[in-house]
Amino acid sequence: MDKKELAAYIDHTNLKPEATASDIDQLCREAKKNGFAAVCVNPIYLSRCRDQLFDAAVKVCTVVGFPLGASTTKTKVSETIEAIQQGAQEIDMVISVGMLKSNQEAYVCEDVRAVVAAAGETAIVKVIIETCLLTDQQKRTACELAQAAGAHFVKTSTGFNVSGATVEDVTLMRSVVGGRMGVKAAGGIRDLETALKMIRAGASRIGASASVKIIDELDKQNQPKQN
User: Fold this and answer.
1) Lower Cβ count inside 10 Å, N or C end of the chain?
2) Would the pTM count as exceeding 0.85?
3) Of residues 92, 111, 126, 139, which has the active-site annotation?
4) Is 119 helix (H, G, I), strand (E, B) or coil?
5) Which of 76, 126, 139, 184 is catalytic?
């Protein structure tokens, strides 16, 4: 895999609450320079990213119901509509984890379906299932519900909970959705080795804040050795 191929997997991410406008400007510059798939930012910075990336192939992504997933469906829909108005092309929404664990599957499915409907043809929807809080069966159920609701991706983690992506979870999620949906691995992916493991396990997108470091590692690895 070369640098360009790897970059196309990566959502270059800064969701830190303390992220400044200049941090986001740097994120956009790095995304354009390296050809990342998207930048993923909090909603407050969407229009800023839209304006900076209007002439780039880099998509603008934001989060909905983040990071807990415990807001109401109406709130998530409102967030989605506003996000699209501000330039979002991709929506990473957090599933209603508590409802899933309460066996309220119909609620979970309709929650996702409502966000997908609000996104319409304008934005793709990735559903964060927060794998670290779920049993394997709950992970399977979450993937099945996201697929039934018409979402485009399932995503492992917010990166704001007890742990992030694992190879085992990516493998499980891919086994459930097959080739019908994307799988995004996110949370704790800080080096090239981990990123490649996730891709080999079935990830079609990687969420990372260490994106430049990962790409630079590959660049160094691919440089011809000096005799």
Assistant:
1) C
2) yes
3) 92
4) helix
5) 184
Neighbours of 140 (CB within 10 A): 17
Active site residue 216: no
Is residue 227 a part of any domain in this protein?
no
Domain range for 217: 3-222
Q: What is the CATH number of the domain that holds 177?
A: 3.20.20.70
* pLDDT class of 224 with cuts at 50, 70, 90: confident
Please indicate whether residue 155 is annotated as part of the active site.
yes
Average pLDDT over residues 94-119: 98
Task: Check if 16 is active-site.
Answer: no
pLDDT in the model for residue 227: 58
For residue 167, what pLDDT is reported? 98
Asked if 155 and 122 touch (Cβ cutoff 8 Å), the reply is: no
Q: CA–CA separation, 144 vs 149, rounded Å?
A: 9
Number of domains in the chain: 1
CA distance 63 to 83: 9
Give the CA distances from residue 155 to residues 40, 48, 57, 152, in Å, rounded to whole numbers and listed in that order.
13, 25, 22, 10
Cα angle 136-157-205, degrees, rounded to a multiple of 5: 105
Q: Is the pLDDT of residue 77 over 70?
A: yes
pLDDT digits (tens, 9 = 90+) for 177-198: 999 999 999 999 999 999 999 9
What is the DSSP track for 21-63?
HHHHHHHHHHHHHHT-SEEEE-GGGHHHHHHHSTTSS-EEEEE
Q: Tell me, yes or no, whether 11 lies in a domain.
A: yes
Write down the catalytic residue from 59, 126, 139, 155.
155
For residue 35, count CB atoms less than 10 angstroms from its CB and return exposed for 0-12, middle for 13-18, buried for 19 or more.
middle
